[in-house]
Amino acid sequence: MGKGFEALFKESAIFANREVLSPHYIPQHLLFRDRQINDIEDSLTPSLRGERGRNVFIYGKTGTGKTSCMKYVVEQIKRLPMVKAEISYINCRVYNSRYRVLSKIAGDHIPLYAKRGYGVIDIYEKVISWVEEEARMLIVVLDEVDMIKDLDDLIYTLSRANSDMKAGGITIVGISNRVSFKEELDPRSLSTLYENELVFPPYNSQELSAIVKERVANGFRPDVVDPACVNLAAAIAAKESGDARLALKIITKAGELADERGLKSVGPKEVSEASKFAEEEIAYEVINTLPEHERLIVYAIALMTINGSRYKRLSEDSESFVLSGEIYNRYTSIAESLHKETKSARLYRRYIADLDMQGIILSYESGKGIRGHTKLIRLAYPPGKIKDMIEKTLFRENEAEVKSEEVASSDAA
């Protein structure tokens, strides 16, 4: 017999409001991000006054508050009277092409025109006309901007629009986990940007502790969480990456473990156990949000780790390591099989550095027993799980992309 539905509706002895503990929850005040919020507001002020401003690009590792701060600023803007700007906030994991972004902008502001099967040029011209007719300033926020597959085309289109308009203008706000993503842009796109750059630093242990403490006070029942547990969750997250999402996931998972075990409080034991689950969950979330070619590289490493590589024959204790050059060859083979244009060896090295920085892989310079100079690379998480996860997401996305391109081509025709 199962526990029955009664268990699902049983009041928790641990949690008071689970929503407060969600990484998507935006508190009324974002701790330790006043300067960053002020910088965003200063950058957007000309657009809010009806003037053409500079584009803004916001960088920072996962869990540093980029999206939360931007959404906070957007909500503050909506409350201001007499604002001369309109905003489109776009999740580029969903709207991951120029066509989809332009369609989303049209859907936000010209609903009667949206979803009628128009081509890219028609949608672009309609958006330009809508901006011009009342000299509007349009702020386009592109969250996870590096997920857009034809980013060059989109950046060039939006930034050059200001030259095509007689009145009004468009300001781009790009948000990315990778400072290096602009290196992939064509020089013609870069030349049109003229942007401010804001970098969000990781939180330190004391900052994470204060953030978790505030959420615990509102999300858990009084006196349920030992103060030492707050500091422990913060210390683990600070050591890993300074990721506030990880700290919150650890304390939330610890609460769930205590709840499942019928405990009346959360102790260090639950936090230590929870950290193992939380770190892996966060890692898989990060992998799923990587740009397409970085995911292909991770997939190549997972396959080679599982199936073996030439280096495994050179050293008995090298079972989980693969050679950087071999990874690049496997990556190009996978990309070509999916009809993707492969990236250069220079960009590949940049991707490897990004993956290393995010803790998804570990890399070492080669030592004795290997000819030449290369990197030894291994995954920080189980390759089988990573392989299965990427196959479920990336290949499904690839099928959807092919269908979307067929529809877009048909519409454009």
Give a description of the structure:
This protein is an alpha/beta fold. The chain has three domains: 6-21 and 203-288, Helicase, Ruva Protein, domain 3 (Orthogonal Bundle); 34-200, P-loop containing nucleotide triphosphate hydrolases (Rossmann fold), CATH 3.40.50; 292-412, Winged helix-like DNA-binding domain superfamily/Winged helix DNA-binding domain (Arc Repressor Mutant, subunit A). Helices cover 53% and strands 11% of the residues. It has helices at residues 6-9, 34-48, 66-79, 98-109, 120-133, 151-164, 187-190, 205-219, 227-240, 244-260, 268-288, 292-307, 324-337, 345-357, 383-412, and strands spanning 55-60, 85-91, 137-143, 169-176, 195-200, 322-323, 361-365, 375-379. The chain has a five-stranded parallel sheet, sandwiched between helices. The chain has a three-stranded antiparallel sheet with strand order 6-8-7. Helix 4 (98-109) packs parallel to helix 5. It is globular. It starts with 5 loop residues before the first helix and ends with a helix. 39% of the residues are buried.
